[in-house]
Amino acid sequence: MNFLCIFTVKGHIQTARSRSLYFQAKKKSEAPPPRRKPKKVIIPRREPSIVVPPRVPVYITPDKTVCVECPCFPPEDPYAKNKKLNPCQKSPRTLYELSAEVVDRLGFPPALDWSENEVADWLATEVGFPEYKDCILDNHINGSRLLMLEDSFALTEINVKNFDHIKVLLPATAEQTGGCGESWRILSQQLTEYY
């Protein structure tokens, strides 16, 4: 540490070190400034994007004890659990449940139940390719495996390599299996125009 000497008029020598110790001792005796309270962050609530109106039951009696959908009288004991929900107390079915019901009612195309011989006969008579009958029988292509033939790569793997035949087989297979028949027709037209 270097000492800095300061000469005063009377000849007294003071050191800078003694002054700095004086100021440090003075700072230690003072209390630190009080801490500020952290600001509370207020996040504004936004309105829900989908507004679902509350379901209002329609009562048939003036005292509002019986609703239209079921005879739901007020329970005598408020703490008793209902063993069975009344129809008016059930929540409406979700879109997922409604769409699942519609899809379950749809039947599968009858072509999915075909045997290997039926697929080979269909290919020979309706589509007009009897030369591929052996390919179908050798690769055991039945009705459920007929879905795989909607892909041109799968057709080349079972030894259907003629491009013109593939262009005819793809929409015919899609039509029988319930695939995208219309889109296959459009694709087939575009391929025919291109080539």
TrEMBL record:
Residues 114-170 form the SAM domain. PROSITE patterns: SAM_DOMAIN. InterPro entries: SAM (IPR001660), SAM/pointed_sf (IPR013761). Coiled coil: none annotated. It comes from the Eukaryota. This is SAM domain-containing protein. It comes from Danaus plexippus plexippus.
